[in-house]
Amino acid sequence: MIRTYVIESQQLVASQIVSAAAAALELLEGFNDSAAAVYVQVFDSSTVPAAATPHPVYELKVNPNGTYSWAPAKPRNFLHGIAVVASSTPNTYTPIVAPSIWVDAEGYTL
Fold first, then answer.
1. How far apart are CA 9 and CA 69, in angstroms?
2. 14 falls in which pLDDT band (50, 70, 90)?
3. Contacts of 103 (CB under 8 A, 6+ apart)
4. Residue 13 to residue 91: CA distance in whole angstroms
5. Is the pLDDT of residue 3 over 80?
6. Which of 4, 37, 43, 59 might form a disulfide with 83, Cβ 3.0–4.6 angstroms?
7. Which strand ranges, in their side-by-side order, compose the sheet holding 38-44?
């Protein structure tokens, strides 16, 4: 049985676990409330990755006070879970100090 989900952060966050188990992501969107650009990174993980973790599955640079959106052409499967984080650097997770992003995600469990 496929169970769909919609995850919406209830406040600004520095990270968001979209799914703690295998899932497919159909849409990821949100807003960067910071005065600085951030990199929204998506990891195949059931938990927030440790600092300095390289190679996110997907990454978007989000300008200050800017929106972001990722809608893969077909749902993107994640075997372990889906963790979304805000990073101050590209390609490697460098945690930001203050919560600054809104996260909205849609998909289904595998």
1. 15
2. very high
3. 7, 8, 9, 13, 16, 18, 28, 30, 84
4. 20
5. no
6. 43
7. 15-19, 82-87, 38-44, 58-62
Locus of tokens 């993107």? 76
Domain encompassing residue 41: 4-109
Both tokens of 95, joined, read 């945690």
Task: Give the count of domains, the chain.
Answer: 1
Per-residue confidence band for 23, with pLDDT thresholds at 50, 70 and 90: very high
Integer Cα distance of 7 and 46 in angstroms: 15
Does the predicted model carry a pTM greater than 0.85? yes
Report the CATH number at residue 62: 2.60.120
